[in-house]
Specification:
Helix content: 10-25%
Number of strands: 15
Order of helices and strands: HEEEEEEEEEEEEEEHE
Structural class: alpha+beta
Length: about 250
Amino acid sequence: MKAIAKKKTSGGVFETIKTIVYAILIALVVRTVAYEPFNIPSGSMIPTLLVGDYLFVSKFSYGYSRYSLPFGLPLFSGRILEHSPQRGDVAVFKLPTDTSTDYIKRIVGLPGDHIQVRHGQLYLNDQLVPRRPSDSCRDDEESPVPVQGYIESLPRGPGQPAVEHCILKIGDDGPLDNTPVYDVPPDHYFGMGDNRDNSQDSRVLSVVGYIPAENLVGRAQFIFFSTDGSARLWEFWKWPFAVRYSRLFHPVH
């Protein structure tokens, strides 16, 4: 009887380990080909994304590259099942100057586009991208300095409606408010933060610059959790009051 009990115990342990291994493998597959969670640590995408937002990024939106794999394993080059981003997409990508770092910005320039900022306003292929003031875009609680909110209308292409999204501006004479013309190379994209005067993005060529298509990880889809940071990890009694309930399952536009 003791031998039988021991055999059952060892068999139970093996089944538990096997279940855990299967669960890890399934999670890795889902993370690689379907959705991957990310959190927002900085305010460069305010008001679209806030510090403390947790969101799912669809890996299949742009196809797959080595950076779709865990640890960016160099098993292949280029992209498989490639789909090109559109202007206005909020995309996660590997920082070109440090591929261990994930960045998230809004795609404003496609291959062949000419991008420039003049007096704080975005120009696309020498055409002013329209913007109009909007108080609904402002979030004074999330902005440490006074800002002006605008709704910007990015053109998508012939026959397609422009995509409208909120941006924030402190003013129109900041360090990145008058730039040279950026000529987006083939197979590259140009990304900018919605918090225009508090974003290190493609305008800073030495740090971000043009985004290679291979570096795209996926498109931001929706926020599944958000916290305002007022509760520390051990302050569990404060957790319910730190959650931004209005942002839960909020789509990213």
